[in-house]
Structures are given as C-alpha cells and as structure tokens.
C-alpha cells in the first residue's frame, strides 16, 4: 500500500482489526490508518455538552488535570523556557482546546495567541482571558502575524494533509522559529504490550501515527531540523506496569508520547 506521506510502497501491516488497519511505512517511519477517517467537523463538535452548559461548567486548571497530563504540561513549559528565553516572543497554539496550557504559558510571561475550531472550547479559552481565534489555521485574522513558536498538542494526527499544514506554519514563523509538537509514539513499549487496546489508535479520528524518526524525516523535507526531543507517558502506569516505569528511567523512548522541537532553517 502506498504511504500517503512519502509515496513509498515500502509499507506493511502493523495492526489489523476488523474495521481498520494500521499500516507502517518503513521509508518515512510513520504509520497511517486504513481506511482513513471520515473528516470530522471539529468546529461544531461540542466538547461541553452544549453552549449554555459550557458557560456554567467551572474552568478547569492545572490542579484538576491527571498526573500524566500535569507532567506533559510541565515538560512543555520547561522546553518553552529553555528554547525561547525571550519573554517578548510571540507564541501561537493551534488546537488549543479550552486553553489550559495556553493559560500556563501566559502566566509564564509570554505573548500567546490561540486558535481553536470548537465553538465551546474557544469561548472558554476567551473566558480565561486568552486571545483566542475561533476557526482553523491558516486564518485571515492572524495571517500577517509572525510567530517565534507554534505549539500543537495531539493535533497533527487529526489533519488529513499534515505536510500542507506544516508548510503553512513555516510561512508564519520568524527566521529560526520553532514548532513544539506533542505526539503519541506508536512504536513505544507500551503500545507493543497493549497492542489493539492502546487508547490512541482512534481510527475514526487519527489519520496518522508518528514516531520521532518519522517527524524528523517528513519535516526535514520542509525546511525544519529537530533541535530537541523528550519523552513522557500519557498512559497511567500502575503496579502492573512497573517494568515499563523502571525501563523508562534508562530507556525514555519506551514511553508513549514524545515532545519534539523543530526549528525553521
């Protein structure tokens, strides 16, 4: 089967289920769902039951997140501060949800803009005091703005044409600008153990399944280079997964999420 990302025929089945199959490309090191999802209208997907209830639900913050998500956000903030020390830098978060991470970035002193397709989520982000554009990227409201960093957390796998999106981001990045991607790692040890039970396959939503090597491969052709890559777990590990937790200390690539920083060349 032809890989839609790199047009290679060097592909093979990675996971086969009744209604879908995950295909791995040995050329670009990424995977894709077959058949691909039917495109979802995220703009009208209501993540908070309905418009009225969305305003009544108290805004969640960092303390209400599960520990795995807290660690994810902590690592993101650490990477931002390390690679973007200038607090005057402009940051854009694409697919920001209701703005929990963006609020943390704002409180860290940065100038951050959000763009979020969901009507209810974007309204809740505005309620936090964030600059949030409701819609999709690229967007006419911010088309003339150059950013020092663009953040996407679990977004790229939902995009039918991710290379086109990365090209558009390239145009709006300052020289030497950065992209911070959080992606699930479908070749991690956790996935090999959980197989079809891994939470992140989501064949009705995810077109793609990435690896750090795969992101490096496809982004290099677009004018980016990898400047940092860190790992974390989204799966909550209990006593049964003690071996995985122990291995993660010495072999971090066994974890099921990676945080990769790409720099515009």
Question: Could you explain the architecture of this structure?
Answer:
This protein is α/β, with parallel strands linked by helices and 265 residues long. It is 28% helix and 26% strand. It has helices at 51-56, 67-83, 100-107, 119-127, 162-172, 189-194, 212-220, 242-250, and strands spanning 11-16, 21-25, 31-34, 90-94, 111-116, 131-134, 147-153, 173-184, 208-209, 224-232, 257-264. The chain has a seven-stranded mixed β-sheet, with helices on both faces. A four-stranded antiparallel β-sheet has the order 1-2-3-9, with no helix packed on it. Strand 7 (147-153), helix 5 and strand 8 form a beta-alpha-beta unit. The longest helix has 17 residues, at 67-83. The protein is globular and about 45 Å long.
List the helices and strands and how they pair.
Elements lengths: L10 E6 L4 E5 L5 E4 L16 H6 L10 H17 L6 E5 L5 H8 L3 E6 L2 H9 L3 E4 L12 E7 L8 H11 E12 L4 H6 L13 E2 L2 H9 L3 E9 L9 H9 L6 E8 L1
Parallel strand pairs: 4-5, 4-7, 5-6, 7-8
Antiparallel strand pairs: 1-2, 2-3, 3-9, 8-11, 10-11
Number of strands: 11
Helix content: 25-40%
Cα separation of the termini? 32 Å
* Overall pLDDT confidence: 91
Q: Beta fraction of the residues?
A: 25-35%
Q: What is the structure about, briefly put?
A:
This protein is an alpha/beta fold and 265 residues long.
For this entry, give a set of tags.
8 helices; single chain; 265 residues; alpha/beta
